[in-house]
Amino acid sequence: MTLTPALFPALISAIAETITEQADAVTELDQAIGDGDHVFNLQRGIQALQAAAPEISGLDWPAAWQKIGMLLMSSVGGASGSLYATLFINLAKNSKDSTLSVVEFARLFDLAVTAVKQRGKADAGEKTMLDVLIPVAVKLQQDAAAGLTLAEIYADVRASAEAGVAATRDMLATKGRASFLGERSIGHIDAGAKTAQLMIAAVSSVLAQAGE
Question: From CA 52, how far away is CA 204, in angstroms rounded?
């Protein structure tokens, strides 16, 4: 993996585009069992990252992840802000240097997702973004250890994210506002899981096209 933060402007632009395209559909999901403001909050963070993209693109990975995490913490409201901030700040915290192998990134991502679990006091099966992040972290480690090609890894990661978000439909929400609905939360896809899946798909597509 030769990816550097120089590709960050393209990554955040792809994320912004896919979230904008799916904003109405995701807001409808969120209004069914949440506060209805998830996309609005997320877009505030995306806009902050777009504004800082030139600076971030010139940093090494630890500094870039730290910058991303701090921006998300200050710009994204709701639970998503603190959880995504935790993810990126822990990527920075556990990173040893500015170079990345697939195996090393898989290790870092798994540690970061574990930190999100601890911060949110949640786990897989509770109808949250973790139902996407956890299976993606597991698949990433499995594929990296098996020596799969980057194209195969990106395809597997996208498939894992899609399966994760689909699985939230039949889950009982036990975290956040949706948990107050009890059994009525079953039958609805979690909006946070959906945006996590959309962003992972956008990032992996850009990386695949870049040949990274």
Answer: 21
Q: How far, in whole angstroms, is CA 108 from its chain's centroid? A: 14
C-beta of residue 5 within 8 angstroms of C-beta of residue 59:
yes
Nearest to 192 by CA among 209, 205, 210, 173: 173
Reported pTM: 0.94
Are 194 and 165 spatial neighbours (Cβ–Cβ below 8 Å)? yes
Residue 69: pLDDT band (50, 70, 90) is very high
- Region of 122 please: left (phi>0), alpha (psi -120 to 50) or beta: beta
The predicted pLDDT at position 68 comes to 98
Number of C-beta neighbours around residue 151 at 10 A: 12
Residues 6+ apart with CB under 8 A from 173: 33, 126, 127, 179, 181, 185, 190
Q: What 8-state DSSP symbol labels residue 173?
A: P
The residue ranges of every structural domain in the chain are 5-210
Count other C-beta atoms under 10 Å from residue 58's C-beta.
13
The answer to whether 75 and 45 are in contact (CB under 8 A) is yes
Radius of gyration of the chain (CA): 16
Q: How far apart are CA 208 and CA 203, in angstroms?
A: 9
| CATH superfamily label, 5-210 | DhaL domain (1.25.40.340)
The DSSP code for 59 is S
